[in-house]
Amino acid sequence: MKRILILITALAAAASAFAKDVELLNVSYDPTRELYVDYNAAFVKHWKEKTGETVVIKQSHGGSGKQARSVIDGLDADVVTLALAADVDALSTHGKLLPADWQKRLPQNSAPYTSTIVFLVRKGNPKAVKDWDDLAKPGISIVTPNPKTSGGARWNYLAAWGYALRKYGSDEKAQEFLAKIFKNVPVLDSGARGATTTFVQREIGDVLISWENEAFLALKEFGADKFEIVVPSISILAEPTVAWVDKVVKKKHTEAIAKEYLEYLYSDEAQEIAGRNFYRPRTPAIAEKYAQTFPKIELFTIDDVFGGWTKAQKTHFADGGIFDKIYAK
Amino acid sequence: MRTHSTLTRTVLVSGLLLAGATGLYADSQEDEIRLLRDQIQALDQKLKVLERKQELRDEEATAAAKSSVKVTANDKGFSVASGDSANVLRLRGLVQGDSRWFFNENVSNNDAFVLRRARLIFEGTFNKIFEYQLVPEFGGTSGNGTLTILDANINIAPKKAYQLRVGRFREPVGLEQLQSDSWAFFAERSVVSQFLPNRDLGVMLAGDILDGKLSYAIGAFNGTSDASNNANNSDTNDDKDVAARLFATPWKGSEGPLSGLGFGIGATAGHQNSLNGASGSLTSGYRTDGQQSWFAYRSTVVPQGNTSRLSPQASYYYGPLGLMAEYAVSKIEATNGTNQQSITNKAWQISGGYVLTGENASYLGVVPKTNFSLSDGTWGAFEVVARYEAARIDDDAFVGGANSLANASTAARGLNGYSVGLNWYLSKTVRASFDGFHTDFKYAPGAAPASNAVIKQDENAFITRLQLIF
User: Fold this and answer.
1) Helices marked H in A242-321 — which ranges?
2) Is A185 helix (H, G, I), strand (E, B) or coil?
3) B95 to chain A, minimum CA–CA distance in Å?
4) Which residues in chain B are contacts of A205 at CB distance < 8 A?
5) Do strands A56-62 and A23-29 pair parallel, antiparallel, or not at all (unpaired)?
6) Quick one: closest CA in A to B207, which residue?
């Protein structure tokens, strides 16, 4: 009898073990789908070689701000790979899901790859768009997502602001400049991938203000005979950030694998994958290898012009902030 | 010469004027075309923007619908579910109002209206895989004012192939016992189910494998007596009963007549020891179809030793035809302190039904094509049912005279039962049943049944039931 009981207990334990398949959820922003499909395959192999365990990685994509909201509302993300630090900050400040100093836990302020903001126009550049000033002219139609929900849209907005601040010299002038640009925006998508769909597939607008990686991907997927990239005179250094979500990984007992998943983003293999997917690698050797892919462009940082994400978020994108005033007009 | 030159000039001027006019006309036409093209492009853009905005609104509405709480009310009950359906609470219910009428019997005061079952069924899921069930019973013996928790369990169900259930639930043994009593052919299950365990406390690993064609279950339980629910966490010893069941439906999903054939076997094995001050764990009495006790051990008898049950079983459903056959052998070592016996009791039954209105019969009941409605002139579904059943008690239960384990004057040595009935499915949720039961009792050698014993005469009973289940 005791043996039978032990057998049943063992079977029950086996069933419980089956129930605990190692599974990781990466909640990311809109245009990283392709990047993480490639990276996940590499990481699954790496983890198997390192530990012998099989891991299943699930991806979730959407506007960065919207994704952060979902995690705060209970989406069990083991890791977040969002468009900007402010959205990860929100997980700390509003959700208490990870410590406030999360950005110091990984190299390069937890931004394993970078990008910037460029313009995608239709082939031949029929509206002769060359720089940010051209976006503020009447009669031009611009596609950019909603900064309230999209991290990419906030980078777009701040890139334009930084340009206007340098050229026109004051915040008031910059605000006027942004107001002119947003007057030319007929529709606001919730995320960067949606905006690309609006411009590329729905054929709306003359210019898409876009992540550099997303613009390259559009050329690759839809053909260089249909679109071309215009590089403005100056843009912003976009630093998408990554973090494991402490509260979730502790609950799911996935802390070790979640950390490794993010740390491995800095490996040569992962940096190669980032470069192949049109993200600017951090590792100097890999960055050098892909230097020809990316145009030379003067980049300012959010710290330089806006005093960091916390301040920029509060000033421009919080409820009642400058964007609300601009778009209400 | 002058005239010629004037003429030439005139022609030249006229030509130039004509050419100019034509050019102007052409320019204006091109401008107009350009203007129209621009207007068309502008309108095209406006239309595309409007379409895109609508698309985005639709996407938002879809996303909002996915995240919003869903409340449903239908003939399966009421449910509240999270937007992703990962977390669900369902409220269901069961009420059975019976009337029992006995004929030519020698026991008085047993014709009655009975609230046989009155249950609220709370069940649902958390995080898609953690299922739960809580079933309080307000009717039956609990109708005397005692509330009983029939089922209370948690089922971890990552896959259909392996699920782990903990708590109080039905032991995986009897085919008819595991069928919802709401959908059994008759108002009362056969005598076979009396010889097998009902609900008990324990842990069970179960699942459906081979594309659902083989169900398995194996569990460890406190151990409960035949036909009883272990409703009060009782356990008289440290030993645990093991219950297991295999049931195959090899042709499930096929089109042929064998598609509804299933067969299997259920079994339990355990050890009961009730002599060390704990209360006994023997059956409180095997009951007839009319729910009268026809066999019970004397009150001093307790289990002492090994117990086991074995139950081969089969069912067949094809169109409106349903059949069920089941055999049970229940072994127990019992004692009253001086007389210890190894008792082997047996029972078997075959039952069947045919849905006269053509609906499919199934283990999960009959769904009528129409609901009963006087205004629409529809009547629901009708099913005729029949059953033969028999039971035999081990002769050793009666040896020992006054020291025997069972009193032969009140306990029968066996029975044969014959039943016919009509089930009327007024809707998916309401069933009325009308059942006639006849039971012949067999006596122990030399037994003289007491004049007021149930077994003194054959039992002839007529039971009606109106049942609501959702």
Assistant:
1) 246-252, 255-263, 268-276, 284-289, 302-306, 309-312
2) coil
3) 35
4) 45
5) parallel
6) A15
Shortest CB distance from B158 goes to which of A18, A204, A205? A18
* Tens of pLDDT, residues B189-209: 999 999 999 999 999 999 999
Nearest CA in chain A to B159: A19
Nearest CA-CA distance, residue A143 and chain B, Å: 11
Could you give the CA distance from residue B85 to residue B82 in angstroms, rounded to a whole number? 5
Residue B244's closest CA among B182, B331, B178? Answer: B178
**Ramachandran category for residue A146: left, alpha or beta (phi over 0 → left; psi -120 to 50 → alpha):** beta
Average pLDDT over residues B21-29: 69
Q: Answer whether A16 sits within 8 Å of B45, measured CB to CB.
A: no
B218 shares contact with chain A (CB less than 8 Å): yes
**Cα nearest neighbour of A203 on chain B:** B48
Contact between B220 and A8 using a beta-carbon 8 Å cutoff:
yes
Task: Determine the residue among A58, A187, A202 to mutate to test chain B binding: the one whose Cβ has the most chain B Cβ atoms within 10 Å.
Answer: A187
Q: Are A192 and A29 in contact (CB under 8 A)?
A: yes
- Please state, in angstroms and rounded to a whole number, the distance separating the CA atoms of residues A247 and A257: 14
CB nearest to A1's CB, from B129, B159, B271: B271
For residue A11, the chain B residues in CB contact (below 8 A) are: 205, 218
Q: Which residues of B are less than 8 Å from A203 in CB distance?
A: 48
Residue B16: which residues within 8 A CB-CB, separation 6 or more? none
d(CA B182, CA B423): 11
Give the DSSP letter of residue A229: E
ipTM of the complex: 0.74
The mean pLDDT of chain A is: 92
pLDDT tens for residues B385-429? 999 999 999 999 999 989 999 999 999 999 999 999 999 999 999
Task: Collect contacts of B331-334 with beta carbons under 8 A, ≥24 apart.
Answer: B331/B306, B331/B307, B332/B272, B332/B282, B332/B303, B332/B305, B332/B306, B332/B307, B333/B272, B333/B303, B333/B304, B333/B305, B333/B306, B333/B307, B334/B282, B334/B297, B334/B301, B334/B302, B334/B303, B334/B304, B334/B305, B334/B405
pTM to 2 decimals?
A: 0.64
Q: How far apart are the first and last CA of chain A?
A: 79
